[in-house]
């Protein structure tokens, strides 16, 4: 159930007072986040707060955008805490307090499928530490050794004296104790919560219409802003004339802020409509003539260049191996720019008052939003709070690039004392993304007389995300080698196959089109190229593509394991109905191993009917199995959308696509049968938000080759006359 | 002044007649369930019921709703009890980010009203709202489950 905001008013007013504002918020907040409203409880440590009524508040530091980590990360704390999951309430950790408390909650970014794999140890330790402190407090009270007490289901008991107490009764004392320096974590065989399908905590609010996203923030006296950015990336406002909208109903003001123009009004629709009547002259900069064809030449030049090439990996001597190979196979692959197209467009609400900045925004990285807001407003980090909300999709768009926060705060700066909610139109969102980079790769392999690869050479030519968006130098340990973007060579630099001579190169060719992290990033494209090319080699060798991979992965047990588990579940090698063909692929991504078998048919009209997609994943441990299944199902839709239709093209320096009519997203009727195979081998923690995407496109394209004899070397499939049946 | 009811409550707005219903609901009446996704009726995130019919509120002028009954995702529950479609959505853990799901649920409710026992093909043609997270397989499962539970409820009522 949702508590109306009044019930947590006291806490909010305390926060507001601390922030120097007398705000009140008019929207109801989800129950899961309303914890601590009436009784703050005792903070046993930064992650665990326990109230006298035994409610356990577990703090969650990263963001929730549908990936389910708001449930699975607290599960790790609860596992070691030995608390009753039904008494758990989840609350976002404050980004402002994270600054003030020397990053007590660590990294707040929900990016790179890293919530579980990068936080699992400190989250489990936080739970174990709190448990030990609660036990110690009870033991002290009873005057018995702590080692004789056990905690289970939020109750501490001492068997010898038959005494019991609950967490809520000793939390206050526990919070005053020094935390133990060392805690022992449970053996995986003793887990009670990890590995069970636990209902996601945010779903009831979503389904009942109570979930609040960045776009839903409502503040007293709030104004609304719509913006127009220079259509050519990197351009600026030259001049602006707002005479036609002056005095129009609801219009407050029109401001020109270097790279964009904002109309501020008492209603977003009025702002957006007025913006159409503001005459803006743009300084397009140097890129007003750039086109997709020109960009293709630019990237191809990188493939052919003799200079400005960085070597990512070099094993053996590929030149010599090619010279003595029985057969050489060579191919060029291409994948296009892609937009994120989160269902909730970019937006940011900001209030600047008395040197303080409050920001409400759908962000994948609250710390980055906070830093961006502070820098834009010119205030210290401690003076900013980023209020947490659910994200209407993220997929990487709301992490690395904080353009929306910069804009929202810049607008609020012109309206000091008044909260302003800025929202992009879908068209702005489509045309001002940090796109998945276009990438061109040349593949070359040498086979010996029996068809085994003895040499592998890949050169990738693309814009570097790290160099242009993150703006860090491409140097180890961030980069695999000097000058190499790690994402650009993903799944190639770490090619796991038994091939003696390998050379992987990167041609950093930075175009003016902004690029960023798009769900699974380099693994959204390179596995398509790698696993399709491996299929080409199997064909050249006259071998079964599954057996060919098996042999090459004999010494890579996790790759091999998931390949075999998936092939077995799919019945690889068993007879298929007439006209139905299979394709297979396997890739490691974000610490998990995935394999896909696709079964499909292609008719004479180029309609691809996917009969079945079998998606296998080995994530090591599985925290919340049903959520892993959901992420795999979602990954299938995301990748099918991309591989069939996804393509951002550039004309006159700007994006040609504008909305879902010309950037088509998959719909329900196109959803094929998807079977998920969880094949956890234990012993490691892999990601699940992104890895599922990696092996889908090559498995489907390899099946299309089996069906038609046509090798797909570029995406999307619509450009090959292929569509979904 | 344009008058209508929202989730059973009489409301009135003093706005331009051409303002889309979505923005009258969201920015004037603070009804945030209907979401902005595309602004041109392609995605369905803004879906509401107007006199029981599915409407993409981003592309309908508020004046067209005068005198009508509007139901949004917030108004689907009866006396605090989730609608059977909402219950099925929870049982099958349908949403991911959830941004489109209010619209998806309202589309499913409208489908089941017209067709209490839809086939997969019926679901395919009726459910055209976009979900970027890719929850389609679960939407399908949940609609079948809701159809079953609603059939059970109406059988119980008759008995």
List the helices and strands and how they pair.
The complex is a heterodimer of chains A (725) and B (159).
Chain A: H1 9-18, E1 42-45, E2 48-50, E3 56-60, H2 69-81, E4 88-92, H3 95-100, H4 115-142, E5 149-152, E6 155-158, E7 163-166, H5 167-174, H6 203-207, E8 223-229, E9 236-241, E10 251-256, E11 260-265, H7 268-275, E12 279-283, H8 292-304, E13 310-315, H9 318-324, E14 327-335, E15 347-353, E16 356-360, H10 366-377, E17 384-387, H11 403-413, E18 420-423, H12 426-431, E19 439-447, E20 453-462, H13 465-470, E21 501-508, H14 526-541, H15 545-552, H16 557-570, E22 581-589, E23 592-602, E24 607-618, H17 625-645, E25 650-651, E26 654-655, E27 674-678, H18 696-708, E28 723-724
Parallel strand pairs in A: 3-4, 8-18, 16-17, 20-21, 24-27, 24-28
Antiparallel strand pairs in A: 1-2, 2-3, 5-6, 6-7, 8-11, 9-12, 10-11, 13-21, 14-19, 15-16, 15-18, 19-20, 22-23, 23-24, 25-26
Helix pairs in contact in A: 2-4, 4-5, 10-11, 14-18
Chain B: E1 2-6, E2 9-13, H1 21-28, E3 47-50, E4 53-56, E5 69-71, H2 84-91, H3 101-114, H4 120-126, H5 136-158
Parallel strand pairs in B: 1-5
Antiparallel strand pairs in B: 1-2, 3-4, 3-5
Helix pairs in contact in B: 2-5
